[in-house]
Amino acid sequence: MAQHVISVDRVSKSYAGVQALRDVSFSLGAGEIRAICGENGAGKSTFVKLLVGITHPDSGVISIDGRVRTVSGPQHAQSLGLGFVAQELSLAPRLSIHDNIWLGSAEVPLIHRRARFRARAQQAMEMLGIGDWDLDRPVGTLSIGQRQLVEIARLLARQARVLILDEPTATLTDAEIERILGVLKLIKARGHSIIYISHRLGEVFDLCDSVTVFRNGEHVATKPVSEITRDGLIELMLGRPFGEMYPTVPLQREGSHAVVVDGLNVPGMVHDFSLVAPSGKVLCLAGLVGSGTNMVTRALAGLAHGATGRVTINGRSMRLGSVAYCVARNVLFLSEDRAVEGIFHRMTVLDNLVATGLAAHARLGILSWPRLHRFAARLAQQIGIDRRRLRAYAGNLSGGNQQKLLFGRALERTEPGVLLMNEPTRGVDVGARADIYQLMRELCRRGYTLIMTSSELEEVVGIADIVVTMYRGRTVARYEREAIDMTSIMADITHPPPATKAVA
Amino acid sequence: MRKFLRSDQHVRPLGLLAVCIIVLALADWGQGRFLSAATAFSTFEIFATIGPVALGLGLTMMIREFDLSVIGMFSMAGCIAVITGADSPWIGLALALAAGLAGGLAQGFIIVRLRLGSVGVTLGGLLVFTGIAAVLTENRSLPYDNMQLALALKTPLAGVLSIRSVVALAIFAITAFIMAATRVGRDVIAIGSDRRAAMIAGVDVDGLMIGIFAFSSVCAALSGVLVSYSLASASVTAVSVIIVPAAAAAILGGVSLSGGTGRPLGIGVGVLVLAVLSTGFNAIGAPPYVNDIAMGAILLTVAILDGPYLMRRLSGLRRRAVRH
Amino acid sequence: MSEPVARWRKRLAVPATPKSWRQLVFDARNPLPVIRATVMIGLAVLALTTPGFLSRPSISSLLTTVSFIGCVAAGMTLITLSGNIMSFSLGAIVGATAMIFTASVNWGGLAFGFAAALAAGALLNAAQGFVIGWAGANPIVVSIAALSLVYGAIEAVGADGTIYAQAGVSYGLFKGEIAGIPFEFVMFLCVTAIGQLILFLTIFGRNLYMVGGSLRAAEAVGVRTWRTISGAYLWAGMFSALAGIMLAIRYDSASMDFGVGYEYEAIAAVLVGGTVVKGGEGSVVRTLAGALIIAIIQVVLLLKGLRQEWQYLLAGLLVLAVVVLQTRGAGE
Fold first, then answer.
1. pLDDT class for C233, splitting at 50, 70, 90?
2. Strand locations in chain C, DSSP E?
């Protein structure tokens, strides 16, 4: 039996009371391309960070080439032949391509002798088909997709034997995707191994030899790609048959056109976007990272600076650019990054819940805490959080409960309003996700207009009443009810047909 | 050399320096008080005092931290040198620098390993070092019995420099070389722009950060020792006297508090701008408050211009005005 | 183990069967209250057993000295809570407002003096807060710039010496005691009370905690962050002006020597009291406790024969200890 390049034995890791990985075992051979699939929060990123030494396991053993190793840090990992391209790129924008390729490498001496390293960098670039780029260009001048290629060049220049790529194609153009997949196949042929974390199941089936599925921090299965179907894979990732996650939609009358957007422009991100969203429905904007979906909702919420366009809500025209203005008119926003832009970690659950409702519970500027308490208790009950946790710090709640807090802020407003949600179930475990979908249906029933974005196609197809696909800041198509179909949506957001402007 | 001059990091401070010199020369109106060797000498003396402190502070700002303790170290080092250097100034210097190294390493270690914000820890450091200086001096001025050394340090070389300013210039030159030509420079810029990314790339972020805090303390200590020796006395320096010009110099020199920008030479030019202003105003007979107001105004203006929301707010206002 | 006990244990993250007392104390989610309680008890014991501490003049002087810095510290608390760490210009504002007060009283009477000084303090600081909140300018740098500008401006106006109160100016009851407590301390208590009311009973106060806790989350929720930050600085300026006024009343004169170095003692009181340096957590009452702790330690050590110079060192060590322990306790 050929020796495994990487062998992981029962590794566990927990952060601040949350068990991110539990008894995970894993092995990878030479020349093998392994996909790692799982929902957000399943533990894929944590696992990979353990492999490259960014964090360290609480228990368990990692072996490289048959020898047990403690990977002390990224530099050590590189010397062991492990290279990592993170989801959030790790390039320094002000340094040149060449400097970025060699940044942090242990091989580079104090006063860099450039010629030798330059040659290797050039070689790596040529292998990727970008040998004509100027090595001295500052990385900041490159597009996201181009920077992705520089990151991979960095791994090749440093002679990584195992390339670990976390969502590598999320922001690439078709041509770039084709090039990357081609290069990866070439690299595999030379005996390198690749770990490929991706949501893009099409690529998984196209490129990879086998798939490892994580769910809720545990290793669920590892199978050769030939032995599993796409639906089977999704079912392994979700933990339950696809249909059961999403609540049934009661047949209801189509609401009036609550939100009408015309000609929305966010410089550089969204171009001439138009939309009609009825109340009582969930409208989902589907698109890849960088397609502009998150920017549309931010613009509607007042958070996008420089946004122009006409927006009317329930017939009243809305001003763009002020969040306070929107909140006062019951247009509320849930950020895709609740840790940084949603939750107040060191304030109580109560404080977090009432954050948007303070004005309604004050007389002459003085708050009434008894009223606020009762208000918060009602909200907590409606979102399924125990009233006794009102005094707990929000930072100590699980991801799912934190997300529910954000929903709680939208309840009991003066009138059912508009809820703009970016990636509402990111980093939320399966159980809480089902709760959140129920919550969304309940809000619809009450007459709210829900506009959300999601990059998880299964979720888009499962929860949305209306889907609007976007690509590079423009609308591609609009689908309603039975017309919603995963293949069409996937095609739209990755390589749409040549532009005929679709009115959404 | 050409690449260095093209870099826009140096344009702003050099431009400012040119403007200040021209303005002051005009204000002098040909009376020969400003454009003279004496003024140049005073300028470089101020440069020698503030320069190293600004350099250390600036480097910590480049990695998005702020070393408040430099002023305390400045005072403490001077006191240590004066007390222990009674017989040999070299021993005093060595011990003071060792104290600087120890203080910087300790702070750096606490900040990096315990992942604390630098302002809180260096505030503690500032108070501790100033406190030690106060205890050592008993809140008075400690005399230093080496007048020859004091005179030697102040003697003009080539009319405009002195030993102190040569030392300061050397520190700047060495630091500039290290930043430009070695991987340390690359790593520092990377840490300043995106600490996480640098760590993933393999940079030894922790070690470098501790090193920068140590460097900052040692620079402050060196400056403090030389100043004390040249004045033949040591005392507790008021915080505001040093920190205002040091921070101003760093910021003028292109260091932005969002990290990743700034170069040692830029900081050096920033110090020169402030020194020129100070001696210039003095030379043309302006009352001392002009210097305070000028420095405060410059600092405030640059802080506002560097504010990340400024552009956004202004364009928002413009759009609202157009709509009406 | 009964249910409520189990829940309590879980909230404190105490292991079910602690292996040792050390684990019980230090593994608890927040050791800070335990440590602080121990320190305060120890301090009280130490203070009460030091001869000379409990004498009237000693306590009276302690309360008076604490009040000047305490008012500034109360203002500093608001700045720290807003996430802007500290302001280097509060001491200069104390001096400037003291001078403005004395000059205004000489010119137009007591009420005018109060109004002018408070307005000046509010304006000088609110302007900084505006620049910091609206443009995003760095708070440390702006306060350093303001420090320089205030000193320069006062010199420029020609008032760099000492201003004396005119003969015949009477401060009335402001210059005495109320029920045996020095008037200054009463003012300090009032300032603390006002600060607490603002923080916990007004929308502005809750906004302040949100802005300090997470600026972006506060924006996403609709808080007008620049208004909140300007407001925090405005109150800080007013509280500092109050300290300046009290100093001017006490010494019948005013000069820029007043308030020198106050910001360092103030931030030490804020941090020792338990307000977190990165903002979003803390209160003015905690700062009151911090100021008292530092003052008591200073007096006790003075009485025990330690010279005044050790106070800076002491404050520094306290701040370091608190800063190091704070993050251990926050458990983030």
1. very high
2. 162-164, 177-178, 181-182, 253-255
Residue B77 sits at the vertex; the CA angle it makes with B71 and B80, to the nearest 5 degrees, is: 145
Beta-ladder partners of A450: A282, A419
Complete domains list, chain A, with CATH: 6-239 (3.40.50.300), 244-330+415-504 (3.40.50.300), 343-412 (no CATH)
Question: What CA–CA distance (Å, rounded) separates C312 from B252?
Answer: 31
Q: Does CATH place domain B9-308 in 1.10.3470?
A: yes
* H helix or E strand, kind and range, residue B12: helix B11-28
Question: In Å, how far is B10's CA from the nearest CA of chain A?
Answer: 15
Reported as a single tens digit per residue, the pLDDT across A413-435 is: 888 889 999 999 887 877 788 88
Closest residue to C203, CB basis, from A340, A342, A362: A362
Q: Which helix (H) or strand (E) holds C254?
A: strand C253-255
**pLDDT of amino acid A450:** 94
- Asked whether the beta carbons of A489 and A461 are under 8 A apart, the reply is yes
Which residues 6+ apart lie within 8 Å of A162 measured at CB? Answer: A5, A6, A28, A81, A82, A83, A192, A193, A194, A195
Structural domains of chain C in order of their starting residue, each with its CATH number: 65-159+178-330 (1.10.3470)
Total residues found in chain A within this entry: 504
**Which residue ranges make up each domain of chain B?**
9-308
User: Mutating which of A76, A91, A100, A319 best tests the B interface, going by the most B Cβ atoms within 10 A?
Assistant: A91
Per-residue pLDDT of B166-205, as tens digits, reads 999 999 999 998 888 888 888 898 888 888 888 888 888 9
- Per DSSP, A159 falls in state T
Question: pLDDT tens for residues C84-100?
Answer: 989 999 999 999 999 99
How far is the C-alpha of B309 from the C-alpha of B306, rounded, in Å?
A: 9
What is the value of pTM for the model shown? 0.85
Q: What are A41-76's pLDDT values in tens digits?
A: 678 888 998 999 988 999 999 999 888 888 888 888
Q: What is the mean pLDDT of chain B?
A: 84
Q: How many CB atoms lie within 10 A of CB B324?
A: 4
Q: Which of A327, A346, A392 sits opposite C213 (nearest CB)?
A: A346
- Interface pTM (ipTM) of the complex? 0.84
- Interchain contact, B182 vs A90, CB within 8 Å: no
* β-strand partners of A194: A33, A163
